[in-house]
Specification:
- This protein is α+β, with helices and mostly antiparallel strands.
- It has a domain of about 140 residues.
- It has three helices and 13 strands.
- The longest helix has 13 residues.
- The radius of gyration is 20 Å and the shape is globular.
């Protein structure tokens, strides 16, 4: 099967957020490839760095236009889009703000966001849940929790494991997105209580549900 893997120089093994680049696609050659062996369980851990380890058919987009297709998956620990190469390897898609990926029906796009723990602005992949000036963003994310070796025969050894730490953010305009919880308080603070309270009440919405939160965002942007 031909996966049409010519990425016009889009692929590079990009480990971590420092690889993000905001230059235009016409500026300079970025032909840098590294193929990695497929082995999502290279250490003894519980769980997986992926929500779905299987590659699925998807598209790589430049400025919203499809440029190439192939088998893709999302690495939720490294915040990377991976493209399958042959039977034994993959490459990571270069992190640039004009490059996004669609896997099945989900769009993965880079957005700036506030990292609360370090009070800094970082870049990561999000799934936008609505269109408009104000967006609700879903950040699919996992981290590796350290294990513990029992000090004696009576102590339980706990292997390291991948845990789900996915979260939601709100982005206003082009500002860095801010983390929220799916609760009325956060939406009232960001959108204005008077602006959406009646809509929430009239439609019997529960803002701890993603689908109801999306309805509120769509209503707010339509005003």
């Amino acid at each position: 099967m031909n996966y049409n893997l010519t990425l016009l120089g889009l692929l590079v093994c990009s480990m971590g957020f420092s690889q993000v680049n905001y230059t235009n696609p016409d500026e300079g050659a970025i032909v840098s490839f590294q193929t990695l062996e497929i082995n999502p369980s290279n250490i003894k851990t519980e769980g997986s760095p992926y929500f779905d380890e299987k590659f699925k058919w998807g598209q790589i987009l430049i400025n919203g236009d499809v440029k190439t297709s192939g088998n893709l998956r999302y690495n939720a620990v490294n915040s990377e889009i991976e493209l399958q190469k042959g039977e034994k390897g993959y490459s990571a898609v270069l992190k640039k703000n004009y490059i996004s990926a669609k896997i099945s029906d989900k769009l993965y796009k880079l957005y700036p966001y506030v990292e609360e723990a370090y009070e800094t602005t970082r870049i990561g992949y999000f799934v936008p849940l609505n269109e408009g000036e104000v967006k609700l963003l879903y950040k699919p994310e996992k981290k590796l929790r350290r294990g513990r070796t029992g000090a004696t025969n009576y102590d339980r050894t706990v292997p390291p494991r991948f845990i789900d730490i996915s979260s939601y953010f709100i982005q206003i305009g082009n500002e860095p997105a801010t983390k929220i919880n799916l609760k009325k308080k956060y939406f009232y603070d960001f959108l204005g209580k008077d602006d959406i309270r009646e809509f929430v009440k009239a439609n019997d919405l529960s803002l701890n549900k993603e689908e109801d939160a999306i309805k509120v965002m769509e209503y707010y942007n339509s005003k």
